[in-house]
Structure formats: C-alpha cells, structure tokens
Amino acid sequence: MNRELQFNIFRYNPQDPNSVPHMQKFSLNETENMTLFIALNRLREEQDPSLIFDFCCRAGICGACAMVINGRPGLACQTKTKEMHPEITLLPLPVYKLVGDLSVDTGVWFREMYSKVESWVHTSTVFDPAAEEERMDNSVAEQVYELERCIECGCCVAACGTARLRDDFLGAASLNRIARFVVDPRDQRSDKEYFEVIGNDNGIFGCMGLLACEDVCPKQLPLQNQLGFLRRKMGITAIKSIF
Amino acid sequence: MQTYYSDLLVIGAGLAGERIAVESADAGFDVIVLSIVPARRSHSSAAQGGMQAALGNSAMGEGDNPDVHFADTVKGSDWGCDQEVARMFADTAPIEMRRLAHWGVPWNRVVPGKSFYFKGGEKFEKVEKEEKAGLITARSFGGTAKWRTCYTSDGTGHAVMCTMDNRCAQLGIDVRDRKEAISLIHDGETCFGAIVRCLRTGKLEVYLSKATAVCTGGFGRIYKATTNAVICDGGGHIIAHDTGVVPVGNPEAIQFHPTGIVPTDILVTEGCRGDGGTLLDVNEERFMQIYEPDKAELASRDVVSRWMTHHMRQGKGVKSAYGEHLWLDIRHLGDQHISTKLREVDEICHYFLGVDPRTQLIPVRPTQHYTMAGIRTNKDGAVYGLKGLYAAGEVACWDMHGFNRLGGNSLAETVVAGGIIGAKVAEYLKGCETVFKTELVKQALNKQEERIADLISGKNGKEDVYSVRGELQDALMEGCFVFRNGKDLEACVTKLQGVLERSKHVGLRSNGIGANHELAAALKVHGQVKLGMCIAKAALERTESRGSHTREDYPERNDQDWLNRTLAYWPEGADMPDLKYEDASPVFELPPGDRGYGGGKIIPADPEMVKSKTITK
Asked: Which chain B residues are closer than 8 Å to A184 by Cβ?
C-alpha cells in the first residue's frame, strides 16, 4: 500500500468549443481496497470537478461504468487498483457516441437495438387477472434467466472486431437478446421471423468468431455458445427456405 | 428552447415509473418517461432477493393468503402504515406477479419432490407437491409467516426491470435517458410538468403535461454510508418538496442494514449471520453475545445495527481510511459452504475487496439501506398539496411500510403501487383539460437558468459542493443514524443549520459546460440539506421508538401520543421545516399490538379511539 497511482485519462468535452481531445495525467494516493470507483470519484471531488464519467450501482450489476481500462473493456467499479500496475490508462468505450471524457451513450444504442430485435415476448395470449399463471418448467425459466443476465454495459460490442468495422452490426448483446426469446416458450415467433431480423451479415452471419465478446463480458455470459446456437438455427432456416 | 408535451410525464424509469407509464399508455394516453440513466440501470435492477406476494404455491407457503401478508406488513411497519394501503397492496400483489409472468419474467417455478433448506445453520427437508409443478415458487424472507417471496435466481430486480422495459418498448413509450428534472412547473395548486436538464448537452428543456408522476427512488446518498446506487440522491423528493406545498412523510423513518462492506457499502446478505457468521471487533473478539445473550448475531436487522454502532462508540471499531468498521467472520463456515450457499458473498468479496472470506475477515458497518420516508401521497398515489402530481415507489410515502419495511415488500411495492396508481392517473387524465400559462413556464425556466448562471459565476459564493455534501453526510451519520437521542439530535439540527447556510453559497470550480457532474450536484445540494434537516428535526420531535426510529432516551413505542405520521413541509424562504402530524391509519383492520419480535415496551393508545377506528373485513 501507500503507492502513488498515476492516472492517464482521456479528456474531451464535445459540448465545450474550447475542448480538444487529449490525455491528462493525475496522481492519487492508493488506499486500502481502492477500486476505480473510489479513485475516479476522489479525482473529481478533490482535483478536477470537470471530469465526466458514469457510475450508478457501483456494485457490478448495472453496467454504467464500462470503460477501456489499460486497453481492455471492463467495469470500473469492480476493478481493484491493488491488482494493477501503478500507471493506469482510462479511455471511453469505442463504438458508442461520446458524452464526455470517459462517458459514452450506451442508452440510445441499446434502445435502438430493442426496436430492431423487437425485444419483447410476442404472444397472442391475453392476460386474465382471475386465472392461475401459465405453468413453466423451472429449468426453462432458469435457462431464460441465464440469458437475461446481460447488464448492457456494452463491453462485448466495444471489444467486437465486426462492430468496430461496421456500425450496422447487431453485436453479441443483441444476438444474445434474440436467443433469450428463442428459448422462451411464451414467445410465439417462428424461426423464419427471427431469420428476417438476424439472418444476414448485420446479424448472425457477420460474426467473425474472434471470441472477444465473451472474453470481456463482466457477467461471463455464454455469448459464443449463443452465437453458435443461433448460427446453426438460422443456417438450417435458410436451407429450409430454399425448398 | 425545446418544449415537449405529453398527457403524462413520468420522472424516473425504475420499476414504479415504468409500471405507471405502461398502465397509462395501455389506457390510451401519451406518456414520456425521463431517467437520469438508461432505464435498466435504475436501482430497481439491483434488488436481488425478490417480491412478496401471497400465491401460496410452494410447500412452505401453503395456507398463505393476502390476509397473512397484510398482517405481516402491518406488524413489520410497527403499526405506522396506512392499513387501507397495506390491504390494497397485499390483495393486488399476486395478480401483479402473474401479470409479470405473462409479460415475460422468468420466475423460478415449483419443482415437485423432496429438497433441503437451511434455517439457522440447520438442515431441513421439504416436499413440493406434484399438482403445483410449474407454478411460481417462493423463498423465505425475514419477518414473514410464510415463504412468500417470488424470485428469479439472485437477480429478481434485474429480470423484472428487463421485462418492464421491454413492455415499454413494445408499447412505444417514449423513455428518454440522461434527463434530470431540476424543478416542477406549478402555480401552487396544480403541477404542469417539469424543467429538465439534459445530461448529454447540459441544456434545459421544458416538459409540459396534464399529470406528472415522480418515481425517483430513495435518497440514501445523503448519508455517507449507504447501500443505494449513486443516483439515489433525493432529486425527486427535492423538486416536490421545493414547491413549498408538498410534505415529506415520516422523514425520520430510515432503515439501516448491519452489513454493508467497507469502503463501497455494497450489501452482504444477512444469510452470512443466519448460517453462523460472527461479528468481531478491533481485537477480533465477538461482542454481540454481550448485548444479546440469546440471539447474538441473529437478532433482527435494526437490533444488530444498533449494537454494532454502540460497540464502535465504545472505541472497539477498526480504524480505516474510510472511517471505522467492524469485521464479519465467515472463515469457519468452510470452503464448501462459502462456494455454494454464499456464492454471492464470495463474489462480492473477490470483486470489490480482493478478500478471500475463507481465510480473511470482511470489513463491515451498519449502512443506510431504505427510506420509508418519502413524498406523502394519498392511497391513490396523489401527492398532498399539488393537483396532477403523483408519486410511487421508494420516493413516495404511500404508506405501506410505516416505520420499518419488510424484505421483499419494497420491490413488490414498485410494480403493485405502479399498477394501482397508474390506473388512478389514467382515471384522472380521462376528460382532463389543462391550460398551460406561458408566463408561468417562462418564470419557472428563468428561475432555473438564473440558478445555473449563479452557480457557474460564483455569484453567491465559492463553497465547494462536495465539501458541503460531505458535511451533511457526516452530520447525519453522527446525529441521525441507527441510534438517536435528544442531545445528539439537537447538535445535529444545529450543525445542519450551518450546512444549510453554506449550501446557499455554493459556486462551481469547473466551467459547468455539458454533462457536468459538479453542476448536477450543486443544483441539488441545498435540497439535500433540507431533507437532512427534516430527518433530524422530525426525529428530535418524535419522543418514542418505533420500527427503525430508535430513541435511546425514549425506548418505548408510544401509541398514546405517537400513533401518527410526520408531515414535514418547507414553506418558501423558511430555514426550518414546519412539522405537522396526521393519523397513521384512517382505520384499523389490525388494532395496534405487539409485533412479536424486537421486544420493547408499548404505551398503549386510548382503547376507545382504537375501538372506534377498528373495522372488520
């Protein structure tokens, strides 16, 4: 302990005409159990109140604080300084629009995604408040939940080779979202309907299989399995449509 | 200047806000929802445990029904709740859980056959019935007579939040993130919408609406140590309270949790102590058995928090860069138990502390957890004082929690209240006509523009916002935390008067341009100090102990004088809240009695009064 940490932080405020993108150096005394959440807040409160970054739950469950930490997308709240070299470089996530400094606009990106993949249960059943709930196998419920654990931090998309090259690529988070509805028996969409959304190069066939999405996912979601599962399913759907 | 118009403006896109939006949109109304973060990052999503609803599907929930849930809720509230509201809540909760299932929540389901569960470290067997297979199941939570908590693994809030937000997307509801309401537009009688700061550009926008609903969650962040997300800073309370005509209900009712980890105050579950974990002091010695010989670490949340605080006051706390704390020891539970039964705790220790709980101690301290306090509404969710203004969820004092909230009732409240109040909002909107006075809007906007300009130029002074906020947080931790007494509360009120004065002279150090956080903090710090003052003053006046409000100098629950709810008004220009009181409940379905836990003496209410208000259902 008692290390002096050196921070190298990306600075740019697009709303300020005088602002020029640059890296700024800060130094800070390390304290016991320090995380980047503590460090960044101290930097803002004690040294430079103009510093822009996002935190929300600060407990690794909301995804607000994703940034590129020493070259790798991750959650700042669950990054402990004691496990790092004393020189720490922080950059905003690529792909998303920059709000300022380390803050990017994931909200708009994900909301557009919801409408593209129609992120809701498609059913013709009408809810009857007087009736018992529709039964479901517990293992199916758990399978759905496993895919719904995504916190929309955006790390997978920021780390994705295809998404970096093409801004119309849906990315692992969106494909995982589709998979969540494919396994949900309440959703009555057919494979053909899913094919119309993801059966192309913007969707499941655009994935280069570089595996970075799963490597950086802070929730350890089985993203590659889902991509494989959907690719097979969509491949078969494509072949079937020929005959 | 951008102006947006809608039938309903919802401020806050957590579960309560989105549930209201869905209900109103379903009724055909045009809704805009504002949120300072993307909706799914709302603090609702952090709730892991579950939602209480008396479905009675699981073996340990057999025989459960809304009457039992109602009784648990009233007892939990220490008879501080509105019993009409608690009744509505208990009756509606099962329907809402089923509706959520229909919308897509992957609730855990009943699996027939034998299985095991643990209670107090002991292993028991239960058998789930074949005919209940596939129905929504439930787990056990503190303070409930039956297993009633519906859940989705360890991410109930997250799963329900995803489903609710999907429902909003499906209905085409306009949910706008990075928007912060900084004041309401009103004429002292009716609310017409809000002045909003865009957190992308820093620009001000006007939102006009026939009805406005504030659903911004709790205000834990005015305490230094809190389990709340950083966005739970009282923004919604402040804009309502600032109107001068809206009261905060029961500001003194704040819940504390014994085991927030230090430094980040993330919660580690009560299960640690339930399974045999112990609390140690600076000498690594146990101490709970000194104070509670029978229950020791297993005493209730508020009791353990109190003794921990007391022990630290005795000089037995561990000093750290983040203040004093104690230790939680689960080393003796062993690798297998920690890896399976306490996996979440293991992960928190690993990710946020770099501590291995198999070999190392976990630094913990009592931490602010939940605000029963909130914007006072009637049972329809309509806010006292302003027509067209509603509130729901933790921000509101609706008031089903009274002086203590039961686990699993808060998350359930968000959707149940959201549904009930959403329907009432739709009723209000039906045939509602409004005239927006342009002069009123202009005045409201000018006032905010002026505030911002003054903060940036430092016209009123150069006080540092973070230092002022820090002083508020320290004052509440010292004088208005787990334990309260006349002497410390008076000192707290006096200290807060000084902080209130300082808060009027805040000036920015940065330029305030764009998504500037210092400006956001500066815009609300004065309101935060006012909230702190309401807590301290109301706690000073309430000379009894009820639920989470513990007065060392008045240990009895005094139903004779204090079976009521505090209403803290803050008239414009005042430097102290104006405290009024109303009856805790208009009727008693369950007359005041013993909670069955927590001990303590009760000074009974006038039996004639109780009799006259008691109804049978």
From this structure: 104, 106
